[in-house]
Amino acid sequence: SAVIDPSAKLGKGVRIGPMLVVGRNAQIGDGCVLQPGAQVCADTVLGAGCVIHSNAVIRERCRLGNKVTVNACAVIGSEGFGYRPAADGRSLVRIPHLGSVLLEDGVEIGANACVDRAKFGVTVIGAHSKIDNLCQIAHNCQIGRMSVIAGLTGLAGSVQIGDGVQIGG
């Protein structure tokens, strides 16, 4: 019952669960596990040994390094939160976020967490960083290597954090 676009490339030993979607030109690395209901959207690249848990979504043009884990119901690459006044001054108009997300090797993203795509560039979570459940990482954030962000923490757009930082909600 999985839907895999014919242009997608699956590596050796990839395990595919039911009711999931792999989009156009997606690349899934060797030994990845895609659990039931996961979505890997168009032009996304997963390195070797990634685990995408049930109902997690990896949006278009995102890049995951090797051995990345994205837990249940997390969203990687959702559109950032940006608006401007409409020309008539009576409403707001969404500002498109055309960038992407890079999760480097060994990153873990908790359940129901969200990492927004950058406005133009790349939102980056450095190698071996761990993001707990229910965290929000907004557009254009740059998180260094081996950082730990505990549950219910939110980072506003364009925040920069160095290596080895620990943050609690």
Key terms for this structure?
169 residues; 8-stranded parallel sheet; 26 strands
Secondary structure blueprint with pairings:
Layout: E1 3-4, E2 9-10, E3 15-16, E4 21-22, E5 27-28, E6 33-34, E7 39-40, E8 45-46, E9 51-52, E10 57-58, E11 63-64, E12 69-70, E13 75-78, E14 83-85, E15 92-94, E16 100-103, E17 108-109, E18 114-116, E19 122-125, E20 130-131, E21 136-137, E22 142-143, E23 148-149, E24 154-155, E25 160-161, E26 166-167
Parallel strand pairs: 1-4, 2-5, 3-6, 4-7, 5-8, 6-9, 7-10, 8-11, 9-12, 10-13, 11-16, 12-17, 13-18, 16-19, 17-20, 18-21, 19-22, 20-23, 21-24, 22-25, 23-26
Antiparallel strand pairs: 14-15
Written overview of the protein:
The protein is mainly β and 169 residues long. It contains no helices and 26 strands. Strands 1-4-7-10-13-18-21-24 form an 8-stranded parallel beta sheet, with no helix packed on it. An 8-stranded parallel beta sheet has the order 2-5-8-11-16-19-22-25, with no helix packed on it. A hairpin with a 6-residue loop joins strand 14 and strand 15 (92-94). The chain is globular, with a radius of gyration of 16 Å. The model has no long low-confidence stretch (mean pLDDT 97).
Shape: globular
Strand order of the largest sheet: 1-4-7-10-13-18-21-24
Low-confidence sequence ranges: none
Number of helices: 0
Helices and strands, in order, run as EEEEEEEEEEEEEEEEEEEEEEEEEE
Helix amount: under 10%
Q: Average pLDDT value? A: 97
- Estimated share of beta-strand residues: 35-45%
